[in-house]
C-alpha cells in the first residue's frame, strides 16, 4: 500500500476527486495518509475531517519558506508518505523540500504547460485568445510549473465561453487527470528521460 500526502490551501476539489477515486478503488494500492494545509480555514481540511482522514494544519505565516517546509516534511515522514500531491497548495516549495522527494511530488496546473504558468492560468489563456486550453499534471522540480509532464488533458475554448465557464470545464478534466497521473506514478512502469516520461 502506498501512502499519499495531500497539501492544500483552499477548498480542495482536486483532493476530493482523488479521495473519491481512492475509495472507489480506481487508484489501486493507494491510501490517503494525511491531508496538510498551511491555512487553518481551508475548506479541504474540513472535508478531510468529514471523511475521517488524518489532518494537520501547519501555518506558514511568519516563517521562512524552508523553516515551514521542514515542518511539512516532518509531518509527511511521520505519516510515511510515499507520494506528495499538491492540490491547490498556494506556496512555492523550497529546493530543499523538492530534494527530499525526487520525482515524488505531483502538481496540477490549469493550462497546457509550458503555456500560461503561474497564477490565473485560465484567465491568461482566455485573454490570449487560444482555441485549446486544458490542464497538466507534472512532477515538481525547483522551478515554477516546470517539472516533467505526466498527463495532459485538452479542453476546447468555445465561442460561448467566458473565463468562468472555461475554468469549470478545465476543472472537470483536472479531476480525471490527477488520479490518472497518480496511478501511472505508483505503477512505476516509466522512466524520466530529460523532460520526457517514457513507459518502460
How is this structure best described in words?
This protein is α/β, with parallel strands linked by helices. The chain has two domains: 101 residues, Rossmann fold; 94 residues, Formyl transferase, N-terminal domain (Rossmann fold, 3-Layer(aba) Sandwich). The protein has six helices and nine strands, in the order βαβαβαβαβαββαββ. Strands 3-2-1-4-5-6-7 form a seven-stranded mixed sheet, with helices on both faces. Strand 2, helix 2 and strand 3 form a beta-alpha-beta unit. Helix 1 crosses helix 6. The radius of gyration is 16 Å and the shape is globular.
- What is the fold-level CATH name, i.e. the topology of the largest domain? Rossmann fold
Question: What are the segments in which pLDDT stays under 50 over at least 5 consecutive residues?
Answer: none
What's the helix-strand series?
Answer: EHEHEHEHEHEEHEE
Q: Count the strands?
A: 9
Please tell me the overall pLDDT.
95
CATH architecture of the largest domain: 3-Layer(aba) Sandwich
Strand order of the largest sheet: 3-2-1-4-5-6-7
By CATH's scheme, which homologous superfamily of the largest domain applies? Formyl transferase, N-terminal domain
**N-to-C terminal Cα separation, in Å?**
22 Å
Helix/strand class? alpha/beta
How much beta, percentage-wise? 25-35%
Number of helices: 6
* Biggest sheet features: 7 strands, mixed
Give the proportion of residues in helices. 25-40%
- Approximate shape: globular
Could you say how many structural domains there are in total?
Answer: 2
* Rg on CA atoms, Å: 16 Å
Return the CATH class of the largest domain.
Answer: Alpha Beta
